[in-house]
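Exercise 7. Given the components listed, write out the predicted structure of the assembled complex. Treat all entries as one system.
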Amino acid sequence: MLQYRKMSTMPRLAKNYRLVFDVVRKQGHGRHLATADVFRLVKRRRVGIGFTTVYRALAKLRDLGLISEIHLPGADSAYYEPAGDAHAHFRCDLCGSVKDIAYVPSKRVVAQLAQSNAIEVNDVILSLHGRCVSCRERESA
Amino acid sequence: MLQYRKMSTMPRLAKNYRLVFDVVRKQGHGRHLATADVFRLVKRRRVGIGFTTVYRALAKLRDLGLISEIHLPGADSAYYEPAGDAHAHFRCDLCGSVKDIAYVPSKRVVAQLAQSNAIEVNDVILSLHGRCVSCRERESA
DNA sequence: CTAGAAACTGAAAACCGTTTTCAGTTTTAG
DNA sequence: CTAAAACTGAAAACGGTTTTCAGTTTCTAG
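Answer.
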């Protein structure tokens, strides 16, 4: 996947694209924003912006490899995070919060599965589902 | 997850529910039907049936644990398969076909991830994405 | 600078899978 | 049989996302 490790090699982005990128990037790795969260945060900095523009910015940033778009079973919208190394995601069934999980199935295992199933695997997506710390605490109270 | 291994213990289903169940079950394990596929096949056996009824039947069968509802990144609708043992799925990016993959991350690894992230994991969902055999053949021609 | 091309914008409408509402009809339990 | 519960299909609603439209802004030659 295309990625820009240095700012200097990154294509110049239109102002709004830059703004959307900053909002997603500011969360830092490990934080995740649903599309609605991105809207909300972007609107704080540029009140009049239309949701069409935000959608288009997210799509472009995703195509440029600057951010990752995540689709999780049970979630009704996409989530976004700064592009980075592959990892799994955890989503809380109760509050919907999403958290990075530092794990990927080994390349060897995936290659083996690809071979035995005669498929070409370009992407492996792993998600965990259950209850997050705060929801567990709240429930036990 | 609730499951009925013997027909005798399975709740009696209304005719339409039975029909939807048969359509999904007939595919056998390893085959997958998008919602639209289920409609199409069900309509062949009962022309007048409404899509509302099919949706409701799929939801009920899913709640009864008789079928599994699958949501895959990149797919625009749900897929259904007869309930069975946990496994991963492969989805072809080109034709959208879905195939079972006999693999689940080890319980030990998942337990370890749950502990180190302070989460309670109730479900693990793994999907592979790429090109299936027939699409690869077609492309190389 | 200027003219034209290319990129970008926001409102509104379209889209599409799915869920809900409504007004019944059918099935089940007693 | 009768009342409650379950089921039905058409139509409308829903919600996230994409497309269309009619411009406006930005970039690139010249």
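Discussion: The mean pLDDT of chain A is 90. The longest helix of chain A spans residues 51-64.
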